[in-house]
Amino acid sequence: MKQIVPSFCSSSSLLISLLPAIFLCISPTQSRLSVKIGSDVLSQICAQTEDTDSCLKALQSDPRTDSTDLYGLAQVSINLANATATETKTKIKSQLGQTTDPNLHDQYSQCLDSYDNAIGKINYANDRWSIKDFLALEAASSDCLIDIDTCKDVTTPASPFLPEQNNKSHLLCNIVSTIAKRLAAGNN
Ligand SMILES: *[C@@H]1O[C@H](CO)[C@@H](O)[C@H](O)[C@H]1NC(C)=O
Ligand SMILES: *[C@@H]1O[C@H](CO)[C@@H](O)[C@H](O)[C@H]1NC(C)=O
């Protein structure tokens, strides 16, 4: 008997001392300032862009989207825009070195400039994001849209890949801009 009582006591006091830890584990620990993006907010954001379905696909392609807040989602979108614009620039460069068609050559060299500028705006957007200057973030993403429109204006359907890349890049800067607007409005 003498041995059973202490071991019973110690195991129940162990359980009691664990209770707060168990509560901590199952209770929500989100702070008010950092609310995880729900699928409802994600859908709302994408519905405000130029292509809802592609927007959802793009954001959900990044594993960070599942666990981040609106501020974090802004950087996800900046990184995606950067990756797509950089990929487009690389494709343009490689085509520029290969094409013998003077019209395509013109398109590619103008678009190379546009994408250089767009990538500059996206990286500037990232600087503004890091200091939480959301109005400047929004302005930088609008500038990115203008740069890509400049390339769109000279792109003809004869280009094998530019129309599609322009659409992808434009949508991603549009997503950055949409999220920046929400952040600037304090609507997170
Ligand atoms: C954009 O991509 C380049 C090249 O991969 C990288 O050096 C840069 O840090 C990226 N910037 C952002 C904001 O994602
Ligand atoms: C690009 O977008 C325009 C308008 O949003 C659409 O009409 C066109 O089919 C798209 N082109 C490609 C190649 O995705």
UniProtKB/TrEMBL annotation:
Any GO molecular function: pectinesterase inhibitor activity
InterPro entries cross-referenced by the UniProt entry: Invertase/methylesterase_inhib (IPR035513), PCW_Enzyme_Inhibitor (IPR052421), Pectinesterase_inhib_dom (IPR006501), PMEI_plant (IPR034086)
Keywords: Disulfide bond, Signal
Transmembrane domains' residue ranges: none
Domain Pectinesterase inhibitor residues, every copy: 37-179
Signal peptide location: 1-31
PANTHER family found in the cross-reference section: PECTINESTERASE INHIBITOR-LIKE (PTHR36710), PLANT INVERTASE_PECTIN METHYLESTERASE INHIBITOR SUPERFAMILY PROTEIN (PTHR36710:SF4)
Protein family: Belongs to the PMEI family.
Protein name: Pectinesterase inhibitor domain-containing protein
